[in-house]
Amino acid sequence: MINGSKTGSTKTIYSFMVFALLLSMIISGCKTTGKEGVASSPTISEKDYKSLAKTIIEKAQPQIQEITGRKYKEDKIKYETITRDDLRKLLIEEELPGIKKLAQGLDEDMIIRQLEVSTEKRSQNYAVRYSNLRKILYVIPENIVPVAVRSGVEKEELQNFLLLLIAHDMVHCLDDQYYDFMKQLGNCTTTELISAFGAVIDGNAAYVTNKMADSQKINEKTYINASKASLTIQDETTGAGKQNFDLYITKGSKFISAIIDRKGAEGVSSAFLTPPVSTRQVIFPEEYLNPTALSSINCTKLIESIAGKLKTEGMQSQKTTVGTMILQTTLATQGINKEEAEAISNSLIDGASYTAIKLAVKPVIVAVQILNFKDEEGARRLDTASKLIQKSQEAQFKARLNTSYNIIKDEETVQEGFDFVKYKEIEQKTDTEATITRELTGLTDSVYITIVNINMDSISKEDMLGILNQIYEGYLKMDQELISSTL
Q: Which domains does the chain have, with CATH numbers?
């Protein structure tokens, strides 16, 4: 897997999703790049928004209760209108504790600065937001018209759009009363668990609002516009916006539908109280309903077993689970076509990564990623995709002025137990700096391993091969334990 990381004036190219990408995904949430001004501006007096919100809530509440078979525990939903600046402060209050928990090892001031920048932008993209921290549904009047315009809403569809948009977050309010989002999210120790639980939350809201749209003959375009606006997605057809819409709305609602088909409406409760443990289980509900369908080595434990041997003392580090949707989003946003990105990521059973960064004029990065696929074909297809992305990024780097790109080494190495082991060493120069990237990739059975070292001369090729061998030994032990447990 390849990602470009901008460090100073040098764009480093390497086959790995570095922690900078993870942090931006945690902080930024859904991607908000895409269509601008695709419809003429719908107009409504700002002073009428509160009255309109009240009317919509009163209209939607009995419909939501009928579809879900559950009643709100309070007669009236708490809602308020707030300013964009108030929303920005709310986003920081809600998100900072969770980000600090997930980003242990990173400088807290850096986290706060990035969150402040992120929320300044994202506070412009919500017209409605339910706060599971304050248990209040917020409407942001100054954002309604801009969000509607960016979403492609025509004037005559504005009220239907607002109905579905507000109803989406009203479902969150109902579900939170029964299943306590804050408690459930507190149990999510990885971004993969958060994404999977998020797909249940938004998937149920999408399922319910789709039923509402059908019953009221609201056209599909308006439903899609309201759904993507609920995730602050401006374009659901490309890039990260497409991947997020696909997981949280399309796949999430299909997951809920599959649960209801199997268990009835009461099955939704089990999905919230015992949520899927991976985005893969969301995409393949039968694996959630039958969790023994697939077994795998624990890539996170495998990463943890070697993290302390990577010479990263004094560096900011992060371990994270790499799930189906993280892999798919990364591939898709790096230019791999939808079908191939989906096929590769759907073959992923489990994955984990470790990244350590030393921030400096010339940053130092050490990273390890372990991905376990259903079969060897999935791992080999990822290897092919990584080469395509790397070639594209190499061409982009060479196209810049005053740069040089020199492949110092590109060779295969024989390593016991591996189908292949490849080592590559690259020097990239600009007029101000030089970056040395050393990358080692290996395939054993269906496990694909990547080790990357950027600007860290103290870790040699031999050291990287030693780390690879330690991972292999840990893999063999886990694999044997897995076999023994099934006997």
A: 3-17+294-486 (3.40.1000), 22-289 (no CATH)
